[in-house]
Amino acid sequence: DAKTQYLDEVKALTDQDLYRIRGVEGVDWAVPLFKGTSRAKGPDGKFRGVILMGLDDSTLVGIPRRIVLGNIEDLRGPETIAVDQVGYKFFFPDQPVTLGRTLDLNDHTVKIVAVVDSNAPFVNLPVFYTKYSQAISFVGRERNQMSFVLAKATRGTSESELNQRITKTTGLKALTGNEFGWETIWYYIQNTGIPINFGITVVIALVVGTVVAGQTFYLFTIENLKQFGALKAIGVSDLRIVGMILMQALIVGAIGYGIGISMTAAFFEATKNN
Predict the structure, then answer these.
(1) How far apart are the C-alpha atoms of 113 and 249, rounded to whole Å?
(2) What residues contact residue 4 under an 8 Å CB cut-off, 6+ apart?
(3) d(C-alpha 212, C-alpha 47), whole Å
(4) Cα dihedral angle (200, 183, 32, 17), rounded to 10 degrees?
(5) HSE-up of 256 (CA within 13 Å, CB side)?
(6) Which helix (H) or strand (E) holds 245?
(7) Is the dihedral of CA 67, 72, 77, 80 positive or negative?
(8) pTM score, whole prediction
C-alpha cells in the first residue's frame, strides 16, 4: 500500500492489485506474498509467537536460499511448513535436526518438511514458511490477506524505471529490496527510542574513553618530563615533541580500534543466527 511505512504494519492488498501489477509494462512476473504473525505450540506444550510467511503456491518464490535439511518442494503437500534454525532449536531444544516433527499452529497440526537458514529478524521470532493458500487458512480468513507483491522486471527494464511505472499505473508503492530495507531502518530511527538509547550509550562510551585516554597520556607526559627536557636540551622543537606524542596516541588509538572492531565482528558472527 502507498502509505506503508514499516514491514510489520501493512494494509492488505487485494487480488485485483496483483493483476494490475502484472499488467504493467516491464513486469516479467509478479506473485503474492503473505507476512503475518501466528502462535505455534511444541509437543511439550511450550508456545511462542512466530512470523508466518506465505509463498506463492506455484513458484515458492521467497524461500531462503540456504536449505539446511529437506526439500522445499515438499511444501506443496498439505499442512506442511519449513522452519528456520532458531525456531527449530526453540521448539526442539538439544535434539537432532530431523524432519517429520509436528507443531500445533492455530488449531492446525503442521509437519516440518524442511529446515532453513534465514537471517534473524529484528524481533528475533521463529520464522515459518508455507504456501500462500495454507498461510491464509492458518491465520484465519479475512476479505483481504495479501501483504505484498513480489515482482521482477523484464530484461532491459531497470528496477527504478519499473518502480515508477507501477506507482504511476496502480498507485501502490513499489520499492527495490534495498529501498525497502532502508525504509524499515528509517522507520525505527524516526519512530522508536532505539537511536536515542544507542546514541546515549555511544556518547557516554566516547566521553569515558576520551577521559581515560587523556588521563593516561597526561600521566605519561608527567612521568617523562626528564626525557622531554633532554630532547629540548639537544635542540628538539616543541612542535616535534607534540608530534611525537600525537603519533603515539594515533598508533595506540588505531590498535584499540582494530581490536574493538574485531571483537564486534566476532560477536555478531557468533550471534547472527540466535
Answers:
(1) 57
(2) 10, 11, 173
(3) 47
(4) 140
(5) 9
(6) helix 238-271
(7) positive
(8) 0.62
